[in-house]
Amino acid sequence: MNIEIFQFKVEPANVTLNEQTISKWFEKYVTDETDLVVLPEMWNNGYALPQLHQIADQDLTQSYAFISKLAKQYQVDVVAGSVSNSKNNHIYNSAFTVAKDGTLINSYDKVHLVPMLDEPKFMTAGSVVPEKFKLTNGVEATQIICYDLRFPELLRYPAKNGAQIAFYVAQWPEVRASHWLALLQARAIENNIFIVACNGCGDDGNTLYAGKSVVINPNGEIVAQLKEKEDHLTCDIDVNEVEQQRVAIPVFDNLRPELYKY
After folding, report:
1. How much is the pLDDT for 124?
2. Where is the CN hydrolase domain (predicted)?
3. How far is residue 102's CA from residue 77's CA, in Å, rounded to a whole number?
4. Would you say 44 and 65 are in contact if contact means Cβ atoms under 8 Å apart?
5. How far is residue 257 from each of residues 122, 128, 129, 155, 246, measured CA to CA in Å?
6. 9 assigned to active site
7. Which of 146, 198, 201, 212 is flagged as catalytic?
8. Which of 4, 9, 11, 41 is catalytic?
9. How confident is the model at residue 117 (pLDDT cuts 50, 70, 90)?
10. Cβ contacts of residue 91 below 8 Å, gap of 6+?
């Protein structure tokens, strides 16, 4: 499975420029071999939080139309990061995935809003956990957003139910870059799962983002990784490694949920 990760600087409150960047990168980097493209968190407006009540997407209308057109044009699935999204009079941090035929195959609203970036002051937390969904090629996946990475309970559920890849999209800050990699590797190891993580980069005037987008195999080993600057990452993975790892280390067969406490 050939995956393309786009790590770029999201311009706050400038959806037009961000869409132009994504379109240019599709044209430059997507090839006939590409199966799937991954975008970062909040790629439409970035963390222009005080302005979101005016500029957030409405029910994913603009974001989905834009991504759907690219998915069909280039015949690739797109894990479309996440966007600021207004629905039911609330603003959410909404992730979604589009199949190469243009259909919406998954959506998820960020459950844990990050206090360090003031998300709870301007956005509403989702109330539904991430589910497993099927990519065009039949691979089972799930997608999770940034601060959610610090809560291992979220991935355990879809992984236990067969997800082979977890896509994490983020605007993770440089000041906590070491946490980013350590937590991603932990999620891969404890769930015997591929981790594909796309982060933003650059300085938006308030926060310096870490970059360091990465692909990690089910044994917790880094397959490929970017540095802190704008760049793309092309990586081939064999999802059969997931089942091999789960046979070798059968953690899901050995769970004792009746004993676990908080």
Report:
1. 98
2. 1-239
3. 8
4. no
5. 36, 21, 18, 15, 18
6. no
7. 146
8. 41
9. confident
10. 52, 53, 56, 84, 85, 122, 123, 124
Count, residues in the chain: 262
User: Among this protein's residues, is 131 annotated catalytic?
Assistant: no
CB 157 within 8 Å of CB 168: no
Q: What is the DSSP letter of 146?
A: G
195 with 166: CB under 8 angstroms? Answer: yes
Tell me what the mean pLDDT of segment 214-236 comes to. 98
Dump pLDDT digits (tens) for 119-134: 999 999 999 999 999 9
Report the largest interatomic distance among the alpha carbons of the chain, rounded to a whole angstrom: 52
One-letter amino acid of 103: T
262 band by pLDDT with thresholds 50, 70 and 90 = confident
Residue 18 near residue 12, CB atoms below 8 Å: no
What pLDDT digit, counting tens, does each position of 163-194 carry?
A: 999 999 999 999 999 999 999 999 999 999 99
pTM of the shown model: 0.97
The CATH code for residues 2-249 is 3.60.110.10
Residue with tokens 């089910």: 218
Q: Which member of 9, 110, 140, 212 is catalytic? A: 110
Active site residue 198: no
For the chain, the structural domain boundaries read 2-249
How many angstroms separate the CA atoms of 47 and 53, rounded? 12
